[in-house]
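hi! just following up on the protien thing from before. the input was this:
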Amino acid sequence: MAVELVRRARGTCGRVESYVMGAATPTLSSRQMDFIRSQDLFFVATAPLAASERVNVSPKGYGSATVIDSQTVGYLDLTGSGAETAAHIRQNGRITLLFFAFVGDPLILRVYGRGQLVRPEDGGWQKHIGHFAQQPGQRQIILVHIEEVREACGYMGNGRKQLTEWSEELGADGLARFRERNNAASIDGLPTGLVAPEKELFR
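and the predicted 3d structure came back as:
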């Protein structure tokens, strides 16, 4: 039953043994663009360059995420208690958006890119504001010029049981083999410490 539940999921969640961060692509597919447009809630992560300073993660809503094209997404940023995202973008440009399927088929979509701030006094405001439903308190548009897109299954959360069912199906030996193949390093190649060093050498 657990295997069948996993096989019914689409995208990167097609098979039990394929529960893994999806292959990186430089642009959004039409399916991914539709998924972004359908999300009422998403999350934005940015960070300053200094290791001693704080990483920021913010929820965004009101259906403010918009796809400009396959290489650009954006959202209308409203006045709030802080402005960490803007400060980090001004410093280094790095930004990640995370979209999660709270209903329907499980899916996590991460969009990595470089942020651009567009404010009402900027020349590009009139060019871009038409993509968004205007809101009280709007202070800037945040555009994300995409460098990489990745999918993951999203089996956890919102009452879903696929992740634990998948783990039970693989068993201890299967999970150990999976971690050796997929959990030895981050997507940027940093070692995680989850796999013995001698096994990391032969991944």
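The two ends are 31 Å apart (CA to CA).
Residues 162-200 form one domain.
cheers
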